[in-house]
Write a structure and sequence with these properties.
4 copies of one chain form a homotetramer. By secondary structure, chain A is an alpha+beta fold. In chain A, strands 1, 2, 3, 4, 5, 6, 7, 8, 9 and 10 form a 10-stranded mixed beta sheet that branches. In chain A, helix 6 packs across helix 7 and helix 11 packs across helix 14. The relative contact order of chain A is 0.14. Chains in contact: A-B, A-C, A-D, B-C, B-D, C-D. The interface between A and D is medium-sized, with 16 and 16 residues. Strand 1 of chain C pairs antiparallel with strand 1 of chain D, so a sheet runs across the interface.
Chain lengths: 408, 408, 408, 408
């Protein structure tokens, strides 16, 4: 915006209400619209938003696809942990994990875990299930009708598949599971969404399927999401059936390695895991049985343009430590890890670079290979974090690490 | 780093292993250390990390307190939703919410909710509980010993208080609750941490208390965190007892307002809420009974320098819609919302500006007032998100909004 | 035992340890063995067990199949509630429910619910799923091995079916679902067990399948039950996937009927249900969203020779109250109801009579019809209990009923 | 009823509807009323109920306090397991457990566990908490009002105590914890109910308190039970806060003893417990982490006149197996065990005898001592069941035991 007085003109219109804050992009190029909006908000709140304005990502696409009413960008520091040797079916080799975080000690902690894993030869990792879901809820007239609806769904899978797949170039329909609660009927639709995390794709396909079910059965569609999906709420259905990727990573550590890296011993790692991650979580009525899976998932997700609210799903991980001859086998299982390498925030410049660091930017060959490789890397990173925190707790280092590194 | 050849020299040392990646800050000023590290990683991964390097936050403090092994920063777009009228005990007035997000439609969705709330006169919001926790786990010799440990803890609260408060200038000890599972004894310590989210403060104080308990009872300290805290895992103990702030926000909407803003009616809002948020979540074995609380919590948390892994706690919100004469009363309750306005990522330039937009940057007067005001604002923002998504689902707009706005 | 001195002789041997308490049936007919054992225990404990000895059930089969070390029988009062009109696919007509209980007010409460349902034309009831499960747990060597085991299971369903069905005359193998947690691999096997509750049948078949899996994959069998079955522990897997019968019952009540029978109104029923059964249970971190399902399940189960520990599964019911024009539609959904009409305690004289009252004693035609009819009746009975308690709470009668009827 | 023609007369009146089934006791002595009712039901259902009529418990009190509409009694076989050495604070010495069950193998299984425990010197057992609860739910006008209600409750504990204790001779008010979910306010009231299980006592006291709260705050009482009690639904609130007795029992077993009694070794017991009871239950989304706690609780509860629906609470037990030098320490923790030795079904002849076998019939000295002793015995019995099943699974005996003993 060459002509700064113009800012004042737009701000005047915003103030008098003749222009809506969200409508600025209709009158100005994105960069200018953002600048006007930021100036307006700075004025209203009496807060300088100067630093928020110092972003360098290209915003043409961002304002259309990622963020409405944009006023700038926050900068989240990215640290690197690694090298981490990953031995998956899709991710193979050495990786450096980009971790976007403001929580002191986290990168150092993950880094220490990466070191232990790599010295032990790498993290074995496998994907056990891969399906994104959406579960519309319908109202039936009564219990008899509810049964008829479910029978119809079970008996017309090919029609449903055809209708669902008509909405998407990449997605594949995998099937449905149904639940009833009185007159509420839930149809949980599962899709292979390839390299996309896939919520959008699945929602659109589910809308078509929901219309079909409603038309054929007389069910009344209440909501495209009936919370049996379950999106971004901790839910056992995702633990039991999986959502996104179900993935597990493990590594065997010798007694010597445990002593050297973690200054504790294998038996202590096992005992800490049982009393904290298993029995402690049980006693807490928890759905997550791990030490800090959410920390690692959040840091990688923010760095790599994933949906950060999916940290909720990631937090349901289970960490296990098996005594084995001469050491321990430590593993982490993430029942529900929704990730993608296309769509969402993955295309924003800085996030794209972070995916690039891992060699998984954009669509994979064959389709889905990048998202799967990414899931394997995330799980291996979570394993690093678990190992490291279990080790630190075993050695009673936690408080001191915090003191030194200033986590608030 | 004026002298670019020097970069090559450091990179050479990193490659040959004579210099550790994390040790760069010992030899170079932070900015240069980051530049060398980024160049090294770019070389190893074959990925340009140019955009990651274009940050403008000041890093002297960041590399010490927020992020080790830093290579740059991701830029997360920040949109604004508002004005949102909040009627709390600490936050009073009109607010514009900074939402850091890459998920299209989210800001627009929250914005619509803010509009509805503000037109209805604002969100009533109250804090019901305020305590940050840490729960060390001890091993007892046997059941009899476990009982003795718990009796000692219950009988020596003043000693525990004195020891705990000796470690902190601001924090206040609130009490302990104990749990036993066989020989594992959990002591959940609660603190008022004022304007800090307080995990660090509480961990340090708990280390002292844990040493005291171990010394006095012969209990063997297994881990400073026994997962009954419960930090960053979905856990009923946080729903039942609270962790961080327990806060609820509500607003009454008239039938006319519901129709006008949401293109649906009050009865539909209530039905969607029951069948989706209550019955659907129940049928899913969920610990969260809401539509999209995690989305709003994540976006505000990332903007404002909070710990994003605490989205897990935020996702356990319960949304309720009561039919009232002439409309509905919609409310959201967050049993566990850990927030702070000092410490953690709150001091980073861009994040500080976002807190500034809300008038809650830094410590409040009296101490704790800023963190409480911030919690009230977050809860009101979550209410806006709930209202808006319930409305959209009621009007079956979800799929279309996604199509238009490109959420992936 | 004609010769009472003989009792003394056996007691002498028991006291001196030359005869084991459990071995009496090897020396004496069941009735005599029971008498001797009771006398011995009476002597040791100084408590007359005279009334325990006044049973009249025939014990030849009982001592072999139902109860070791028998000393007598407790008598549990049986009340009757009804008539209850049931409109199921298997149970059709008027029923009188036998309720074995010592909790005052329960029979009266269910009876009132039956009256309301019958006056409204009867309970609609449908079975949505029917499968008994057992889930052995195996140890894999590592994550890679875990994946191989699961792949083998998924790829060899016909072999598994053949091996499983080779152990049972009546049971049919329905399929398997698998879960992994680190190196622990769970294979949840599902069977149609016809008129038997089926735990025994399923355990035997699962032992064969477990041996097969272990032999073919090198998996190490840890336990025939890995708790993903899940038997007699509250578990979301049973809510999500079902165990035993998944069954729902519902009825529409007019405003007039609600007022007349329950002295409250339809709106109050709906509000009590939302605030208590839905929101209250959510806030409690519950897996059951009902008022008193366990009471009714327990009373019918004890009367009808079911396994009373399965009350746990029954307690996960969800009760819903939908406002409809002119009244409410009230429903209860039991995701997991394990029942049988053959095997277990169903053949004991008094229990057999209670099943006979319902017309479902013994095997049905076709096989499974009796167990399904019984499940439909139980669900309808639970609906009666829910209706009645919701009504009483609505009318604030609970405390007074307790005062009058003496529940302790 | 000397004059049998009279039966026909009453049955005629029942058939023509001039006499209600539940009103028979108003016209006839209990025994006769039961006989008429049974004959009437036998006629309607075409099922002989002869055996149901062969009860010998005295019914004068039963028909008033335990069971309405009585038609007879089921006879549940009672087996005995023991001796079991218990080393509690209230129960000390050798006990024989009365187990009312129809599930073959259960008594034998518990018996084997008792043998192991007793040979190891007995079960250490302690009660950690003791409080019966009731949680009325109120509707507030809005969030502000909700906060006022909770503030009032917290600020008027002495008034609440005084009102509550005015309703009961034995009960003592222990305190309240509050929860809010939107406009629903839950006040969980805790009482020491001495030797009574106490639900009745607590409900009556809570009704008074609820009236007080409503009168003082303008809160609208919705239901005397708001499901945060939580009664007979699996709920984390009971795990976290306890309900009834919180009790744990443990025993150390040497390697030799494990081998001798269970034909397996200590390491296997520990591994089975981790993979099944801890990790398996975690993966199942369970609230119970045990092998068969519900079986033992159900069998003792039915024998001893407890409320069998409270098996739900009992099923949330956690079983732990710690490796110790030369063996294992095995423990079971029951967070929520509601029991009583007066009231409910405890006074019925046969049930009273079972309590008598344990030396805990009727009220204790001091008040509460009998119920506490009983809780200690139940927990020790559950420990026996856990040990035995873990041992059997370890030795892969489960299927064979079932085959032999005919559990259906």
């Amino acid at each position: 915006m060459a002509d700064t007085p113009a800012i004042e003109e737009y701000i005047r219109k915003l103030k008098e209400g003749s222009l809506k804050l969200y409508a600025l992009e209709q009158h100005l190029p994105p960069g200018d619209a953002i600048r006007v909006r930021r100036a307006y908000i700075a004025g209203l709140t009496g807060s300088s938003l100067m630093k928020l304005g110092e972003f360098t990502i290209s915003v043409d696409r961002v304002v259309k696809r990622n963020c409405e009413n944009m006023i700038g960008a926050v900068q989240v520091p990215v640290g690197v942990a690694g090298p981490l040797i990953v031995k998956g079916e899709y991710a193979k080799g050495e990786y450096y994990l980009p971790l976007a975080t403001t929580e002191g000690a986290l990168v150092a902690s993950v880094n220490r875990g990466c070191s232990a894993i790599s010295r032990a030869g790498g993290a074995e990792v496998r994907i056990f299930r891969d399906a994104m879901t959406r579960a519309p809820v319908f109202a039936a007239n009564d219990i008899v009708h509810a049964k008829e609806i479910i029978d119809w769904v079970n008996g017309h899978q090919e029609e449903i598949r055809s209708r669902a797949e008509g909405t998407t170039k990449h997605g594949r329909y995998l099937g449905a599971s149904t639940s009833v609660a009185g007159t509420s009927v839930y149809v949980r639709l599962e899709f292979d969404t390839k390299d996309a995390m896939g919520m959008n794709m699945v929602t659109i396909a589910s809308a078509e399927v929901a219309d079909l079910i409603a038309a054929e059965t007389g069910a009344r569609l209440i909501s495209l999401s009936g919370n049996l999906c379950t999106d971004k709420k901790p839910a056992a259905v995702n633990v039991v059936r999986g959502r996104g990727k179900t993935v597990a990573a493990g590594v065997e550590l010798s007694d010597d390695l445990v002593r050297e890296v973690f200054k504790t011993d294998a038996g202590t790692l096992a005992e800490v895991n049982v009393r904290k991650n298993l029995v402690g979580s049980a006693r807490a009525g928890a759905l997550g049985f791990n030490a800090q899976a959410a920390n690692v998932v959040a840091a990688i997700f923010i760095a790599c343009g994933q949906d950060p609210a999916h940290v909720v799903e990631g937090s349901t991980a289970i960490t296990t430590v098996d005594p084995v001859p001469g050491g321990v086998y430590v593993a982490v299982t993430l029942p529900s890890l929704p990730v993608g390498t296309v769509g969402g925030g993955t295309g924003i410049d800085t996030q794209l670079e972070c995916l690039g660091m891992l060699g998984v930017a954009g669509g994979g060959v064959p389709p889905g290979a990048h998202a799967k490789a990414f899931a394997e890397i995330v799980a291996s990173g979570v394993l690093a974090g678990e190992l490291s925190l279990l080790g630190a707790l075993g050695a009673q280092h936690l408080a001191r690490a915090h003191t030194r590194l200033g986590r608030g």
